[in-house]
Amino acid sequence: MFSPAARKSNHGTLKDRNHSPRAPDYTPTATLGGGRKASFDSSIPNRPKTGTPAPWASRLSVLARISPMKNSEKMDDEDPIQPVFVGEFPQVVREEQNNLHRKHAPGQACIAGGMDKGTSISWMICGSRLFLWSYLSPASSNKCVILDIPSNVSQNLDINRNSNLGCSWLLRVISWDYGNNRNLQRQLKSAGILLCNRKSGAIVYWPDIYPDGGADPVTHLESLEELGVAVSLGNGKSPFRRQHGLSGHENNLIESISFNSLIATPVPNKKQVCIALASCSNGELWHFKCGPGEICPKKVCDSILDSSSSVTSSNQAIGGMGYPRSLIWRSPFFSLEEHNRQFFLLTDHEIQCFRIELTSNFEVSRLWSQEIIGADGDLGIKKDLAGQKKIWPLDIRVDDRGKEITILVATYCKDRVSSSSYMRYSLLTMHYRSGMDFLESVNSHERVLEKKDPIQVIIPKARVEEEEVLFSMRLQMGGKPLGSAVILSGDGTATVYYYWRQSTRLYQFDLPYDAGKVLDASVFPSLDDSEAGAWVLLTEKAGIWAIPERAILLDGAEPPVRSMSLKGSSKEVSMEDEKRNFMKLGSVDTRRTSSEARHTADREHDNYSGTALGAVRDEVAEGLVSQLFHDFLLSGQVDGSLEKLQNSGAFERDGEMNAFAWASKSIVDTLAKHWTTTRGAEIVALAAVSTQLMEKLQKHQKYLQFLALSKCHEELCLKLRHALQIIMEHGEKLAAMIQLRELQNMISESRAAGVTSQHSGLEREVSGSLWDLIQMVGERARRNTVLLMDRDNAEVFYSKVSELEEVFYCLDRHLDYIISMEQPIKVQVQRACELSNSCATLVQSAMHYKKENHMWYPPHDGLMPWYGQHAVISGLWSLAFFMIQILNEYEIDLSAKSDICSHLEVLGDIMLEAYLGAITVKVELEEEHKALVEEYWNRRDALLDSLHRQIKVFVDAQIQDSVDDTPKQKEMILRELSANLLSIARRHECYKILWIICSDLNDSTLLKNLMHESVGPKGGFSYFVFKQLYENGQFSKLLILGEEFPEELSTFLKDHLDLLWLHEIFLHRFSSASKTLHVLSLSEDGSSILDTEDKIKPGYAEAELMLPERKRLLYLSKIAAVAGEDANYSTEVERINADLMILKLQENILELLPNEEDKQKIGQRLLPPGDLIRLCLKAQIPQLSLKAFDVFAWTSSSFRTHNRTLLEECWKNAAELDDWEKLYRFSAAQGWSDDDTFRVLEKTLLFHASRRCYGPKSQSFGGGFDEVLPLRRDNTKPPNLKDSAASVESILMQHRDFADAGKLMLTAVMLGSTQVDVGTRDNVALIG
Known about the structure:
The protein is of the alpha+beta class. Helix content is 43%, strand content 15%. Strands 20, 21, 22, 23 and 24 form a five-stranded antiparallel sheet that branches. A hairpin with a 7-residue loop joins β25 (474-477) and β26. α11 runs antiparallel to α12, α22 runs antiparallel to α23 and α29 crosses α31 (1046-1053). It is elongated, with a radius of gyration of 46 Å. It starts with 10 loop residues before the first helix and ends in a 16-residue tail after the last helix.
C-alpha cells in the first residue's frame, strides 16, 4: 500500500546490487502480529537515508530496544528526528499479551486497539478483555481499567483470530464530565464505553467504567441478518473487481456486510444514556439508544439515504458496495444546552449532512447534501478524465472548529502510453461558503461547501491495491505541524502527510518486524486549546510512540522517492543487518531532550528558513563551551579558552540563543540520571530531588567561576548583557526551585501529622494545591516536548528549571482547575494560601539570590527580570484576585480571613514590585508603558483597598472581645494591624490608603511625615491630601497645612482660585493675590470677561459669584495691588477700575431693561461684555444704545479690535434710532439756520455716541476708539471693497437716508467729536 508504481527498467540490477544476506530461519521471540509476513530475502533498492529507519537501531528486537535509560543519560550526538518512545503499555496489558501469544499460534492472536482524541484514552482488546488507559500519563502512574467482554458476545465470534486488514472492533468513549476541561484531565472521572463488532453487529455498552470497572455491561446480540441487513450482492465481488479482474483474499471484507463507522454522543438530561449511529457497508444507517437497562436499535428511514441516483431500494448500496464510508460529528464539542447534533456521512460521490434530535424520539433528518465527485471540478473532484477509471472517497475528517472538511480520496488510473495501472492518493479540503455554516436547511440545489485549496496529491503514482485495502485506510487530522495529516492502513502502516515549502512531504512511521501493527494515531492535546501537539501512535506490541514535528519537516521525503508500504520498510531489515547495527552502535540511544527543546526554540527563531550555517556555528560554539567547561571541572585550567570561544562565534548572538546561555540551560535542565519512572510520583518524596537540585546549583556556580577565570564573564558583561542576564537568572530559578522543594517537604510533613497511618505518602502529597500545580506544569512540559512523555510530571517539573515562568502561566490560565469552586470554601482558602506561599517563596528566593550575587550581574538598564514578565505578573494577579474575591464575597471565619490577608499582603507586595520592575524597563527602553502603568495602579488600588476593609473588620472584632474599648485602645489595635499595609502603600505610593490610615488614626504627624517623604507627579502625596481636604470642605485645615507645605499648596491651589488668594496673602505675595482675585472676580465658565480668548482654569466652582460678590473681590484685588506696589501696579489698578465700571454698567443696564423676563433670567449673573452689548442693541432704546458704547469704552483695545463688527453694529443702531429723513425734510421746509441745525443735532443719538467715543472728555481703557474705528475715512487712500466700513463715516454712508440726510449725519458726528470746536460752530456748517 502507498507505494510508487513499479518500474520495469533496471529493477533487477538494483536489487542484485543491494541484496543483503538472508536471515536465519529461527523465529524471533516477539512474533509478527496480524498475519503479516516478514521478508528477509531481499533488501530495498535505492532506499533513501531520510525517512524512518529503525529509530533505535541498537538491539535486535524492538522490545529490547526500548531502553530503560533516561534522556539525560543518552548521548548528545544522536539523531533528534527519529520517532520517540513515550510510553509503555500498562503492565497488565503486557502480561495479557504474553499470555495470549503463548496460547495461540504466531500471528493468530487477536489484538485490536485504538485512541480516543477527545478523552485521550488508549484502548486495547486482547482476546476477550478490554483495557483502557490514558496515553497522556506515564506508565508508572497510569491507571488501567480492565473490562471483560461478555462471553455471550464472544461465543459466536471468532475473536481469537486476528484480522489481516484493520480492526474488527469499533469503540467509542462517552464522557459524562461535561463541565470539566478535558485537556486538563489526566484521568476521567466518569465515562461510558460503547463497543461494536464490525462483522457481527454485536454491541456491548458499559454505562460507566469508573471506578473499578463500573457497572455491568449491557449487550445487544442481534446479528446484522437479524437486523434486516442484506448480505448478498451477486457473486460477492465489487464492481471494481469484476471490471478489472483484481483478485481478493479468501476472507474478503467485501464478501460480507459489516459496519463501517460508529459515532456516539451523550443524551442531555438523561443519566448514562447515549445515542450511537452506525453506517453499514451495504448503504444502511442505524442508530442505537444505549442506556443502563437496554440497547434499542432502529433503522434510519430509507428516504433519508435516498439521495443517490443509484438508490432503488432500502437494500441497495448508495452508489456501490462498501458505502457509506464514514460518519463524523460536524463539531467535536458538545454541551448540555444542545438538544440536537449534526453529523456528516460520506458516500461514494457526495457529503450528506444530517441532524439528530436528542429528545425522546431521536429523529434523524437530512439537512443538505453536496456532490464532491462529478462532472464539475470546481465542486470537488472531476470524474471521467482521461486515464481515470474509478474514484473512492475513503475517509472524512472535520477540524476542531467545525469549519473545514478534509476527505481522503483514492483514484485508480491507467497510463494510456505504457498501459500501466496505478493508484493516486489525494486530499480534498472543503469549507463552508460565506454565510452557509449556520443554516439549518438549504435548497436542494444550493451549494453549501466549496474547495478551500486545490486538491493536494499525496502520491501521484502508487501501486494498485485491492478494494479491501483501500477501505481499511483511515485519516487523522490536527497534529503538528499545523495542517499535517496521518493516513493509517489496516496492514499496520502510518504515513504522515505535510505540504511544506511548495512540495508534498511524506513521513512513514516505520518499526522493525516485531513491533506489530500501528493500531491508531491521535494528538497530544494542548493545555491551552491554542494549538495541537505532536502526533502520537499506538502500536500493537511496542507501546506508544510520538513523531516530533522536526522529524516530519526535515525527515519527510517527496512521494516519488519514497516507499510507503510494508514492502520497502525497515521491517525487511535482515537479522545480519540488525547484528551489525548492534555491534556498530552499541547502546547509543536516539532521543535527546536538550536537542528537542533547542529545536523548538530554534523553530520559533529561524522558522527553518535557510539558517543552516548559523545553526551549525551555534552547535559548534555550544559544544566548545561545554567541552571547555568540562575540562575546567577536571583540571581547573582555562588556558586559551577566551580565544577559542571568540573564534567559534560564541560571542556573536545575544539572548537565549547564545552558546553560553544554552550551556547554562543544559546545566539547570539536566534530567536526573538516578530517577526512574517505575517508582511513579513517590520520587518527589525522596531526598534525591533536593540533592539533584543542589548539585545543579553547585555546578552552575562552578560554571560562573569558569566564565570569570576565562574572562568570558567580562566579555559577556560588556557585549552580551542579555545572555549574561539569562545565565544569572538560571541561578535564581535554581535557588527558587530548591526553596520550593523545601516548602513542599514542610507541607508534606505537616499534612502527614494530621492523617492516619493508613494513608500513603503519595496520597498526602497529592492532596495539596502545590502538588496539583506541580503536576500541571509538568504535564504542560511533557505535552510540549514529546521526548519527556515517558517521564513523571513531578520529575519533569523539578528538572525543567529554566521554565519556571510556566508555574505562573498555569496559575493564570488554569487556576479554576487547581482550586475548584465546587470545593468547600475552607478547602479553597487552604489551597489558595498554599499557592500564595509557594509563589512568594519562588520570587523571594530569586530576589535573595540576586541580592547576594549582584556583583555577577550585568548593568540592568533595559533588561527585564524574569519575574517582571507578563506571564508571571498575570499569574500572581490571578491568584491575588481570587483571594480578594473570597474576602469580599464569602462569609468565612476570622482565622481564615487572617490567613488570607497575611498571604495576600506578601503576594501583593511581590506582584507590585514586579510591576515596578517591568515599568522601569519599559521606560528605559522608551517603549509604550501607559497601559501597564494604568494596570498597575488599578490592581494596586483594588488589592490594598480590600486589605484595608479586612483590617477594619479585625479591629472591630478585637474591640468587641476586649474589655477596654476606649478610643485609645482602638487606635493602638488599628495602628498595629495597619503597619504592614502602611508599609506597602508607602512603597507603592497608594495615596488613598495612606490618607485613609492617617485619617483613621487621626495622626497629623504621620500625615506630615508621609507628605514630606512622597514627592511625585503634581506634588505626590501632598497634592492628594490637599485634594481630599478641599473636596471635604475642610478649608481651614487645608490652609493651615499649607503653612508647612507652602509651595505644594500653591501648586494645588492653581486649580482653586477661591483659596489661592488667601494662601498668597499669607505668603505676602500681594501682587499675585491681586491678580488671582482679579481673575476670580471676572471668571465664568473658565474665561475672563477681559478677553474672551484668554482662557483660565475654573475657580470657585461650588457656588456662582453674584455681582456684589464680584465687586467685593475687585475691591480686594485693588487693595492687594496697592499693597504690593510692584512696577505695574498702577496699570493693574486702572484695569480693576475699568472692570468695576463694567459691573456698574451691567447693574444700570438691567435696571433699564423693559423686559422683566430677561431681568429674571440674567439675575445677578455676570454677563460677558459681548453679551451685554448685544442685550443693549436688542432693546432698541436710545439710553441702552449709549450704554453699549460705554461698555466698549471700559473693556480693552484688544476686545474692541476683535469685536469691531459688533462696534459697527452699535453705530448702525445709533443711526437707525433717529428719523433722519424727517429731519432733512423739516430743515429744508423750514429753512433751518446753522444754530437751529446744531441745536437739533445735539439731541440725536449720533451726536451723543460721537461725544462718548471721540469727544474731548471721553474716557476709555487701553486706548481710544480711533485706533480701531476712525471717525472720518482717509481720502488719500484708494477705496477698499473688502473694508467698506473702515470708519464711522463709511458706516453712515451705508445708511438708506444718507443720500439726502448725509450732511446732517456727518455734521452730528463731527459736532460731538473732538475734531470740531463746539464753541466755534461756523466751521461745522462747512461739512458736506
